[in-house]
């Protein structure tokens, strides 16, 4: 599953600022994908952008020989808590998320999010 690129998803026509993947620990044909977009609103506790995020599970399907399809399903609240913990700490996610941040003004190494919010 890790050999396949992450499928593009847009939010109001915008590409994500951040896309991260993590292999699913219980299914070899699945992975977790975390995407984050700038909301356009400032963070109430600082000057960084407030991010909107999506956590989904992608599964591969092989309906006919070499044809590979990807099915996406949203993570449940229990899966988010199990994966990230009740405080949304990405460092608890059972291994490093892999991915990249888009090269956007205001999103540099010091500005990249380190926490995800469950339920978003």
Topology order in helix (H) and strand (E) letters = EEEEHE
- Give the tally of structural domains: 1
Structural class by secondary-structure content: mainly beta
What fraction strand?
A: 35-45%
Percentage of residues in helical conformation: under 10%
How would you sum up the major sheet? 5 strands, antiparallel
Which outline best applies?
globular
State the total count of DSSP E strands: 5
Q: Treating each run of at least 4 consecutive H or I residues as one helix, how many helices?
A: 1
End-to-end separation:
25 Å
Which regions have little confidence, pLDDT < 50, spanning 5+ residues? Answer: 104-120
Radius of gyration from the alpha-carbon trace, in angstroms: 15 Å
Average predicted local confidence, pLDDT: 74
Q: Reading side by side through the largest sheet, how are the strands ordered? A: 4-3-2-1-5
What does this 3D model show about the protein?
This protein is mostly beta strands and 120 residues long. Helices cover 7% and strands 39% of the residues. The protein has one domain (18-101). It has one helix spanning 77-84, and strands at residues 18-23, 30-42, 49-64, 67-74, 98-101. It has a five-stranded antiparallel β-sheet with strand order 4-3-2-1-5, with no helix packed on it. The chain is globular, with a radius of gyration of 15 Å. The chain starts with 17 loop residues before the first strand and ends in a 19-residue tail after the last strand.
């Amino acid at each position: 599953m890790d050999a396949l690129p992450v499928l593009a998803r847009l939010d109001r026509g915008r590409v994500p600022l951040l896309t991260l993947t993590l292999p699913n620990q219980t299914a070899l044909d699945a992975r977790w994908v975390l995407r984050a977009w700038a909301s356009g609103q400032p963070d109430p506790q600082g000057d960084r952008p407030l991010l909107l995020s999506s956590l989904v599970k992608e599964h591969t399907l092989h309906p006919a020989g070499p044809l590979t399809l990807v099915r996406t399903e949203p993570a449940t609240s229990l899966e988010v808590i199990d994966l990230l913990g009740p405080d949304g700490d990405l460092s608890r996610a059972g291994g490093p998320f892999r991915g990249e941040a888009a090269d956007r003004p205001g999103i540099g190494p010091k500005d990249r999010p380190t926490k995800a919010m469950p339920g978003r």
